[in-house]
Amino acid sequence: MNAKRKGKRGELEFATLCRAFGFPARRGQQYRGGPDSPDVLGLPFLHVEVKRRERLNLDEAMEQSVREAAKGEIPVVAHRKNRRGWLITLRVADFFLLYRAYLQQKGVGGEDAEQEPSHHLCGHFGAQGVGEEPSEERSGS
């Protein structure tokens, strides 16, 4: 199967999975990269890049999602290999943003859960978050 057909099949498969979890997802319009053409539509505030490959350069896939995400969207890579389950990759700062919201919804977490991340530390660990530009250190490498 050629890469383009496999990519389309992966996008349709992931959209079907999203619908099984109750999200009205569908494959996006693949005319050009950018905020108006994520691989999957119907997941508000997420820019999803779907990759269905045996050998995936995850850094490149995430960079594509970051580059094409609109301001305020969380860039996500949904990926899987043959005979394996789907995985979701996101930046660590975005993970903690989502986890904090989850804890607040559950009524769990003290004062520490309310704090904003230290941007100095986020940059040090390569952990840019929603709507942030990559640090000079990372973009220069």
Short description:
With 141 residues, this protein is an alpha+beta fold.
Topology, element by element:
Layout: H1 3-20, E1 26-27, E2 40-41, E3 46-52, H2 58-68, E4 74-80, E5 87-90, H3 92-106, H4 111-114, H5 119-124, H6 136-139
Parallel strand pairs: 3-4
Antiparallel strand pairs: 1-2, 4-5
What do you see in this structure?
The C terminus is likely disordered. Strands 3-4-5 form a three-stranded mixed sheet. Strands 1-2 form a two-stranded antiparallel sheet. The chain is globular and about 50 Å long. Helices cover 41% and strands 16% of the residues. With 141 residues, it is of the alpha+beta class. The longest helix has 18 residues. The chain has six helices and five strands.
Distance between the termini: 35 Å
Rg from C-alpha positions?
16 Å
Order of helices and strands: HEEEHEEHHHH
- Could you tell me the strand content as a percent range? 15-25%
Total beta strand runs: 5
Q: Shape from CA axes? A: globular
H/I helix tally: 6
- Major sheet: size, sense and barrel closure? 3 strands, mixed
Low-pLDDT parts are 134-141
How much helicity do the residues have? 40-55%
How would you state the average pLDDT, rounded?
81
Structural class: alpha+beta
- Read across the widest sheet, the strand sequence of neighbours is 3-4-5
Indicate the multimeric state: single chain
